[in-house]
Amino acid sequence: MQDSQANTGSVATIDHESYNPALRHHFADPQQQKNAASLGMWLFIVTEIMFFGGMFCAYLIYRLAHFNAFAAGSQQLNIWMGAINTAVLIVSSVTVVLAVKAAEMGKRKALTGYLVVTVLLGATFLVVKGFEYAEKFEKHHVPGPTFNFTDKFDDNGKQIPVNPKEAELFFSLYFAMTGMHALHMIIGCGLFSTLAVLAWKGHYTTNYFTPIENAGLYWHLVDIIWIYLFPLLYLISRHS
Amino acid sequence: MASTTIPANQAFAPSSVPKLNYLNNGHTVRSWLLTTDHKRIALLYLISVTSFFFLGGFFAMLVRLELLTPQGDLMQADTYNKAFTMHGMIMVFFFLIPVVPAILGNFLVPLMIGAKDLAFPRINLLSWYLYVIAGTLFLHCMLSGGVDTGWTFYTPYSTVGSNTNVIEAGLAVFIVGFSSIFTGLNFIVTIHRMRAPGLTWSRLPLFIWANYATSLIMILGTPVVAITIVLVAVERLFHLGIFDPALGGDPLLFQHLFWFYSHPAVYIMVLPSMGVISELIACFARKRIFGYKQVALSSIAIAVIGFLVWAHHMFVAGISLYAAMIFSFLTFFVGVPSAVKVFNWTATLYKGSITYATPMLYAFGFIGLFTIGGLTGLFLATLGIDVHVTDTYFVVAHFHYVMVGSVLMGYLGGLHFWWPKITGRMYPDGWAKLSALLVFAGFNLTFFPQFILGYVGMPRRYWQYPPEFQVLNVLSTAGASILAVGYLLPMIYLMWSLRYGPIADANPWGAAGLEWQTASPPPTFNFEETPVVTWEAYNYEEIPAPKELEAPVAG
Asked: What span, in angstroms and rounded, lies between the C-alpha atoms of B359 and B349?
């Protein structure tokens, strides 16, 4: 976090070469504005990490407390859908990076294109997630009065019966965590759709594309949360 | 050190309010409700937070009136539960947490660092709207029956026991939490990125350091309580078992997550007030704060260590003895930076030329109340004593001293100190001094008896009590009445001063700090031109004191 003293030193005067209509009045220069916006975004990401951290903490503690049930519940998740979604999100992160690059180079059409592709990939993720949730309903793995879990924990040939209440807890956390993540995906898709429209209209220039960068940071954050969710929920108990 | 190092008090000697300032720059409702000027947003907060303060105070009076007699004669047990819950929730989430940062911080942070505004003015306005939305939701929740869980939302009562509107109250707390997250985020970015040229970290006013530390807690802690309350709401809605032991969950996890935020929240409340006190003491002792660097870093230390003490709320809840010992130690440890502040303030007073202006009276009040509150905190950090007084009035008295007494002293002291800057008018001094004394006396009369009550065993949250506790309870209620007068008085005379108060010049106290170098009230963009800072904070040796504040020379 370097200081911005050097940047604030000069009194803001309108220099027509670097005149920037996006510069807000209370900043001395575009660089200061950009630094402020990106620091703000990073701090927001910190709050998001703390927000999800509460649920990861709950997951960790209950996994330790009810290991068998959590392992058995985990084995019931659809690993293929999870893997496909992981791949989709990783590709979408690449398109976000390409979008930022295109914005940097001032390529309006490429920028819009990458933003649209990102939204489509995000939507793909949500559709797959929807099918996955539907499967949970069919298998009666949704917590609530209809919840039914008869599986046993399979520890290398040993069949250990599982307390359905504890399995329900696993699925409660599964829905809370993936649901909160999906909500962030929906917000991200809305955000990127807006950016795509603005980008198409030529709102962003090589001098001003901070919103693209910051929205990109948000998208990467949501990806990374999934990168943690996938192994913790789907993979961790499939060692055998 | 040329003449530029001396803040130009003499440059401004207006006999009337400056023609163009932030207050008269636009008169329409729209110009207020859609403003992005941090000073106007501060005033919006001032109005809304004050309203909630008096609402919370109303419930406090209901509680105190019920406890006037040993029988439950004013209200039923259920109503009493709701009354103290409403009191707690309003005061904690809608008053104590936003009061100093959102009002004084919003107004002063950009002024003190020589910026034109906060880094994100629109997010600042958004945070006020979130506050208002949350407040409206909460009022609706209150009018549609209220909540009876206590402000702590303890599970499983809040998820399966209570039949009141817990979800709506939770939603209100969730939203107001985001209001404070955005304030904190805005402050951190502003302090990092918007400081005037030459204003290095070691030249920052201590109010800025305190708000920086507060903001760290806001952005790190608040999201955790937000997700915790979401989980409570989801659990209530869909009958999940995350915190319900009957379904495999663990209520202790709720307490851990809740206090992970809600203990540091105490420092969200008190740290900004501590920042105010540093400003007041330096100004009215006309000295540089003793140990500037230590006071500044102690704010950060409080923020950091404050995150590691939460389980001291759970010593009797069934945590392991070893965990309890560690948390007990850390709780003692967080007392160290707090004590550093108190000792450095008193050391600043030593050989200072002290003026007993109203803000200084509040500062003295703060030191008194905070010392009592802090020391009794050490009682509670001691495992054995904590077991004895858990859930008694001893705890109630302790946290009121720290959270309420200290915070309000800092807030009111700061409000009086910066009132001429905010409004361009002076407050009536006699009334102000009277109210400062009333608040101090009333506060001690209200809460000191509660230490004794708690120590001899009166539990909190009951609407009845054995008759032998009545004398102390009557004293406490009497004190609360004095306190109410002490809080109502400023409300009246400050409003009076808006019209009839003497006009203040730019720097009526001869105070250091950039905010005093611009007009009172400041113009919309704060400074005519960006100031360049070449001096340390609190360079009172170089600033002439105003005539009326000059200490008489001993004969």
From this structure: 14
When divided into structural domains, chain A yields a total of: 1
Number of domains forming the structure of chain B: 1
- Amino acid found at B244: D
CATH of the domain at B299: 1.20.210.10
CATH number for position A173:
1.20.120.80
ipTM of the complex: 0.89
For testing contact with chain A, the best of B38, B189, B195, B236 (most A CBs within 10 A): B189
Residue A15 resides in a domain: no
Containing structural domain, residue B82: 36-545
What would the pLDDT profile of B175-209 be if each residue is shown by its tens digit? 999 999 999 999 999 999 999 999 999 999 999 99
Q: Which of B174, B115, B135 is nearest to B45 (CA)?
A: B135
What SS3 class is residue B280? Answer: helix
Task: Quickly tell me which residue has 């499983």 as its tokens.
Answer: B156
Residue A12 lies in a domain: no
Measure A174 CA to nearest chain B CA, in Å: 11
Q: Does the residue A9 lie in any domain?
A: no
Two tokens at B226? 């937000």
- Residue at token pair 């001395």: A28
Residue A200 placed within a domain: yes
In Å, the largest CA–CA distance within chain B is 79
- Spatial distance between the Cα atoms of B489 and B440, rounded to a whole number of angstroms: 13
Q: Is residue B294 part of a domain?
A: yes
Q: Considering the entire predicted model, what is its pTM?
A: 0.92
Instruction: Provide the residue range defining the domain that includes A213.
Output: 25-235
Model pLDDT for residues B520-532, shown as the tens digit of each residue? 899 999 998 889 9
With CB atoms and an 8 Å threshold, state whether B253 touches A58.
yes
Contact of A176 with chain B, judged by CB distance below 8 Å, is answered with yes
Taking CB atoms and an 8 Å limit, are A173 and B242 in contact across chains?
yes
pLDDT of B546 higher than 70: yes
